[in-house]
Write a structure and sequence with these properties.
By secondary structure, chain A is an alpha+beta fold. Chain A is 24% helix and 29% strand. Chain A contains two helices and six strands, in the order βαββββαβ. Chain A is flat. The two termini of chain A are 25 Å apart. The chains are: A alpha+beta, B mainly alpha.
Chain lengths: 131, 415
């Protein structure tokens, strides 16, 4: 069963790790790389991507002729998607356990961040036959 | 690359894969390494045979190449150890002899089935390992079918092999006492592969169809190796009788078509008659099991020329037998449908109540889908719409969700 783990982070004005020490930033990055390595080793990683900061985002809509009309990001959105993992696991509980591990990524002074991770099934099940 | 092999050589190759692996494992006593070596010999064959032609003794050729690879591995391992401990080389292991009789080959293939479907493996590991070690599929092919990166799948297989190695499972057939239970585990893995493949649409269509074909091929091979096991025959029959309806299960845009609305002229009559033949022979053996009963139910559907001809009382009787045999809530669910078809929707709905308190089913989309269907039969359209929508929000299959949402919308227009 495939699940997506979405890491939503509070919008922090586009700054990368504001106010973190170099050591804390390095520890955080090393932790994330370790998690990805472990998921590859366990045969569960489908994909993992980090996204550019929200100041790089554009909102796009179709204009009158179907031409793209771009807009900046709405300032009112408080959270943004920082990155995601897609994992292929034997049970939902395992996806939750991975999410909890990611959630506890180290922050300033190595304290766990306990970020909210949204876990949702990916539509990948084979359909049954209906009567 | 592998694509260059014609269908006949590809078939040969896949059939030889477990025999070659068996021979190499018996010689070197190292399943994980032997499995890698055989994959390399298969790859070498796929590169060379199209150019140079299939060798006179393809089986021997593959064993030679795999054995040479094993020797290289053992040597470099020995060299590594020698650097550490000055250990000496066991020369007798390094003499490849290419001989084996058919009987050993058959036992080897069966032993591999038991090994790759060992209960100590998780289902996803057992599936991947069986497809590679017994099915002779390449990691890339399996990873494409399951839509996971090749590196991830390779890792899954390598971990599965490590589990087998660490738990010290010997390369031999299980004892007579264990055999029955271990065979059930093999059948379950093949059933899971088939279900993965028995899909219709939505992206990975083609790859998954190949998985159901592969499951049928493996079940055929298992049935040939264990011809007296009625359940192995029952599983093969179930696969054929289900697969027979595949072309009719989906519409032109990949939408699901329920059993009652399928164009029955598109059902595969050859598969149906083969399935019925297998099932009849299996039932005559007298040890009736769950796969045979499910195959019998599929056969009753397949043999009805129109929906109205469906012998629902017989299906209900078969589900009653099946309910007594297994505690599977899906069986209870289908039993309720059959009951509704024979005794009316209110009887079926009554039976569903018991499943509401079953933690395995209470939040399962199939329970809501069946309830919606029976409520619609009972002309409670509002109730049916509600449950079609709940089912749609709980399923993790896109074609199912589309189907359920369409059902709800159709009823909303009617109401």
């Amino acid at each position: 069963m495939k699940y997506i783990l979405m890491m939503n982070t509070m919008k922090l004005g586009g700054a990368t790790f504001p106010g973190w020490s170099r050591k804390d930033i390095e520890a955080h990055i090393a932790f994330m790389m370790r998690v990805n390595h472990e998921l590859r080793e366990s045969g569960e990683l489908v994909s993992a991507e980090g996204l550019a900061f929200p100041d790089q985002a554009k909102l796009v809509r179709a204009g009158k002729d179907g031409e793209p009309v771009t807009d900046g990001v709405f300032p009112e959105s408080k959270e943004f998607l920082a990155g995601y993992w897609i994992v292929d696991v034997d049970a939902a509980e395992r996806a939750y356990a991975i999410a909890a591990r990611v959630s506890a990524a180290p922050g300033p002074s190595g304290a766990p961040l306990n970020m909210p991770i949204e876990v949702r099934p990916v539509m990948s099940a084979p359909p049954a036959e209906f009567i | 690359m592998p694509e260059l092999l014609d269908e006949r050589s590809e078939g040969l190759f896949r059939e030889l894969a477990p025999q070659v692996l068996g021979a190499v494992v018996r010689r070197f006593h190292d399943f994980p390494a032997a499995e890698d070596a055989v994959q390399e010999s298969l790859l070498a064959a796929s590169l060379r045979w199209p150019r140079e032609g299939v060798p006179e003794n393809p089986r021997g050729w593959l064993i030679q190449v795999a054995a040479r690879r094993m020797i290289d591995t053992v040597r470099s391992e020995q060299a590594r150890r020698r650097r550490e401990t000055e250990a000496s080389l066991e020369a007798d292991r390094l003499t490849p002899a290419v001989d084996a009789d058919t009987e050993t080959d058959q036992d080897d293939t069966l032993t591999l089935f038991f090994m790759c479907c060992h209960p100590s493996l998780t289902p996803s590991s057992a599936i991947a390992l069986t497809l590679r070690a017994v099915g002779g599929l390449r990691t890339a092919e399996i990873s494409r079918a399951f839509l996971v990166p090749e590196a991830t799948l390779a890792q899954r297989i390598s971990r599965a092999k490590q589990v087998i190695k660490n738990s010290g499972i010997p390369f031999q057939l299980p004892t007579a006492e264990e055999r029955e239970q271990r065979l059930r585990a093999v059948l379950h893995v093949l059933y899971l592969i088939f279900n993965e493949g028995y899909t219709s649409s939505g992206g990975p269509q083609l790859q998954r169809l190949e998985m159901s074909r592969e499951a049928i091929r493996l079940a055929r091979s298992l049935h040939a190796l264990a011809p007296n096991d009625a359940e192995s025959a029952g599983l093969l029959a179930l696969m054929l009788l289900t697969d027979a309806r595949r072309a009719a299960r989906t519409g032109p845009d990949g939408e699901l078509i329920p059993l009652t609305k399928q164009d029955r002229t598109r059902w595969d009559q050859a598969e149906i008659s083969e399935g019925v033949g297998l099932l009849t022979a299996a039932l005559a053996k007298g040890s009736i099991g769950a796969y045979q009963l499910q195959a019998a139910i599929a056969a009753v559907h397949d043999e009805a020329a129109t929906v109205e001809d469906t012998d629902w009382p017989q299906i209900l009787a078969l589900y009653e037998l099946l309910t007594r045999m297994s505690d599977n809530p899906m069986v209870a669910l289908n039993h309720a449908v059959a009951c509704a078809m024979v005794h009316g929707p209110s009887k079926g709905l009554e039976q569903l109540k018991a499943l509401d308190s079953d933690p395995r089913m209470s939040r399962h989309h199939r329970l809501d889908a069946v309830r919606a269907h029976l409520l619609e039969m009972a002309c409670d359209y509002q109730g049916a719409i509600t449950h079609y929508r709940i089912a749609a929000s709980r399923t993790t299959s896109t074609p199912e969700r589309n189907y359920l949402l369409t059902q709800a919308a159709r009823l909303s227009e009617k109401a």
